[in-house]
Amino acid sequence: MPAVRNVLVVGGGAAGTAAAILLAEGGVSVDLADLKPDVSALGSGITLQGNALRVLREIGVWERVAAEGYAFDTLGLRAPDPAGTLIAELTDIRTGGPDLPATLGMYRPTLARILLDRAAEAGAKVRFGTRPAALEQDGDAVVVTFADGSTGRYDLVIGADGIRSWTRGAIGIDLEPQPVGMGIWRTFTRRPESVTRTDLFYGGPAHIAGYCPAGPDTIYAYLVEDVQDRSGLTSEQALATMRELAGAYHGPWDEIRESLTGAAPVNYTAFESHVLDGPWHRGRVVLIGDAAHSCPPTLAQGAAQALEDASVLAELLLRDSAVTDSLWSEFTARRLDRARTVVEASLQLTRWLLARERGDVPGLMARIAHLVAEPA
Question: pLDDT tens digit string along 325-342?
Fold first, then answer.
């Protein structure tokens, strides 16, 4: 018998939906609440490393994800010169195992829809446009009052509500993500035929100019710069600013830049980071995903670490017959150091870039790849 009978998951992102799927499949009654009115997600594309794909296979969505996304096994490094010269082609480690690709890119809202559809299929009750307004713990349960006035009593509440987690504050954790000093322009547009993997350009006016195929005909492209206040730009000005910054990069970027017209959505986000040091739970409320840790996307491990959190937590809750100190100790032991190592490595890469320092980027990437290749 599982350690819990009914669970509230707060947040319908990757961590929350994965936890909901696994627990519902294991016989637990699951409510999933998300403040958004629907499954649409801010952003353009997402890069999923092999260890993320391993969890997506575990929760039964790998075939759907593979059909919608674009898989590849190499990484290109290019120069910011007039030809976009290819400097190196690196074979990525298949961190999800030999039968899964090293990397897959896809449209972020499509992944959100696949995960939420799977959660509903597994039996989770999904509620959009609502969130908890209050939590009260009484020993073996959490009484939740929702913003619409309804209430529920749960054996466990899982806070998977992102980097600005309401749940984190509600359980008395005073921790806010800190700025890293970089911002990223992102867009989603037509894929040039020559783009069959991620290529990264280091140097030039941007710290990183990169792209990732996200489907048979689409691409996710991005430019990382010193963070600036871009909030006052109109959509037309944002598009023009990204096109101007992209003008320093060539090779496939020439075709990508030409596709950046009014139909291409552009957004800008400042990098932030945090790690909750110590246990991620308080009584019968536990944090996972970006609510517990976040990192700049320099190593493309954010979604993977969130999915691993969900997988390990669900494993322990379905394996044990009660929520005990030993369960929480094992969860902390299996997740905290691993997530912190990934965050620190991501931050090390940002520090090298900000200082214009030639760090051992391939070595750092390989070290993290070998770490996450071992199941969490």
Answer: 999 999 999 999 999 999
